Amino acid sequence: MTQTLPVAFVGAGPGDPDLLTVKALRALQEADVVIHDRLVSAEILALVGSQTRLRNAGKEGFGPSVTQTDINAMIVEEALTGARVVRLKSGDPTVFGRLDEELDAVILAGLDYTIVPGLTSASAAVAALGQSLTKRGRNTAVRLITGHDMQGYADHDWRALAREDGVAAIYMAKKAARFIQGRLLMHGATPSTPVTIVENASRPDQRIVSATLATLPAVLAESGFTGPALLMYGLEPRDAVAHALPQVQELI
């Protein structure tokens, strides 16, 4: 009987290989097969062992994708052969990574698993702004929202997010930007609220574009983003904040 080993669900981080955890790197180098997402960077895939097989399980929002059912089956089939399987997910597998669906398939097949967390893209994006996700006197909470899965989207507590201290990292939101804008304005958000778009956070082609809630859809359309982008609602780059500081100090 083939001995099965735990399936490792590993976070690849936002793309910069220097942000990969030591535990994740070890898992990649010991794996027999790595089943990876479309957004995992080539630099990270280059770190796998020389004998490791790579299998692309890419899912593209609103585009061609490997179905979740097929991904589940791929993981289980590889693991049942006794292979060391790493399911490699961009960012952190516990944040909008459909981890629970894959865990259910693995458990149903009688397989063990381990989870190796990774740095989520929101952390890399806010670091690129020179900001923090929470700040004393500004906000004591932050929301992580996905703009891709629209099911139940209208049920979010938009009124709470629309308050002056509202801060959110909104993943996969390029196509939902106009809906997000409408919901927030409908619930009292100020049109001048800053929204910073960070494309390809932590990667060499990272791009940061500033907008406001009022200008968000137009700025997104003009910018022509093609890579993964996060909307950092309620936050702007530190240099923009620093530029306003002398005026604030004069008022004080």
What would you say about this model in short?
The protein has 252 residues and is of the alpha/beta class. Helix content is 32%, strand content 19%.
CATH superfamily of the largest domain: Tetrapyrrole methylase, C-terminal domain
Strand ordering within the main sheet: 3-2-4-1-5
* Structural domain tally: 2
Strand residues, percent: 15-25%
Using the 3D structure, state the CATH architecture of the largest domain.
2-Layer Sandwich
Give the mean pLDDT: 90
- Major beta-sheet overview: 5 strands, parallel
Number of strands: 10
CATH domain topology of the largest domain: Methyltransferase, Cobalt-precorrin-4 Transmethylase, Domain 2
Taking pLDDT < 50 over at least 5 consecutive residues as the criterion, the unreliable ranges are 247-252
- The number of helical segments is 9
- Supply the CATH class of the largest domain: Alpha Beta
Which helices and strands, and how do they pair?
Blueprint: E1 7-11, H1 22-30, E2 33-36, H2 42-45, E3 53-56, H3 68-80, E4 85-89, H4 99-108, E5 113-116, H5 121-128, E6 143-146, H6 158-161, E7 168-171, H7 177-186, E8 194-199, E9 207-212, H8 216-223, E10 229-233, H9 238-251
Helix pairs in contact: 3-4
